[in-house]
Amino acid sequence: MLQLKFKQPDSAPLTLTYSLDHLSALTEIEQTGKILFYDFGLYEIDKSRMKVDRMAYPEAELIVVHKKRDTRKQRRCLVTANIVSWQGSKPLNDPESSAKPSYCRLVLHYLEWLAAVEELATLDEKRRLKLTTKHMIATILLTISFNTFKYGSVHLLLCNGFFFPQKRKQTTDRYRNEIEVIVNELERNVVNRLRELKVCEEEYVLLKLVLLFSHSESLGEKHTETTRRLHGKYDQILLHYVKHSQGNCSVEELIDRISSLFELLTSLNSISEMAELCLVHIVALDIAGMRGKLTFDLHLRQHQ
């Protein structure tokens, strides 16, 4: 059996127990009335040695408890992990020491969400990886933007308690200035629009799915048709949801809202192109210690 213990601020830890034989099927856990998506396969647990791959989940701690066995004499283990915190308490004044941990945690958060998207399994591994990496930055930008709005923060939130201060220091550093431009664009064109529209969590999740299955021409004819179908599916679900959740609105108001939601994706794709180009240079030059196997594979390998 696998026992998972999630730390929760100001409350008792949430502990869940599952069979090791069904790890790949576990994609949902319920915590404080919300559904959070985790694929415990991301821990890359080796059943023979009972280890956690710290590259995949650096915050995880694995303890093998040999003396506790069930009727099948299966090993038990305990994994403790911190759920992403969106409570901004520390300004990002020292990106050299904070950028890489925050980046890796956001990437992991994205991968954990992807694990719950069952339709990805219809693609082969190569095309699944291509689709995953293509929309990673735009989806992460949407995630931090929505949580900035959701938690009522006046600052753009990162995970691990960090936020971008509104009054940032002037610098001659080219890459810091580029990041400043990206942050300003995100605040103006995405976060502010989320506030104006009062986007709900259901709309947010559906927007992420529409984004994930868009622009897939490079996947090959068979898989392109699959992703087009899935893109259309989530388009229609979003349209249906908006129509029924905004029951008191006129047709014109519904059309305006739907158009505004899709305009958010256009803005995100544009900003993500700037962010991706910036990350390519940052990783290539190992700025703030950002060069590593994960960042190389995500941002540089395609340019070799």
Automatic annotation (TrEMBL):
Keyword Transcription regulation recorded: yes
Listed SMART domains: HOLI (SM00430)
Top-rank lineage group of the source organism: Eukaryota
Pfam families documented for this protein: Hormone_recep (PF00104)
Ranges of residues in domain NR LBD: 45-301
PANTHER family: NR LBD DOMAIN-CONTAINING PROTEIN, NUCLEAR HORMONE RECEPTOR FAMILY-RELATED-RELATED
Listed name of the protein: Ligand-binding domain of nuclear hormone receptor
Taxon lineage: Eukaryota, Metazoa, Ecdysozoa, Nematoda, Chromadorea
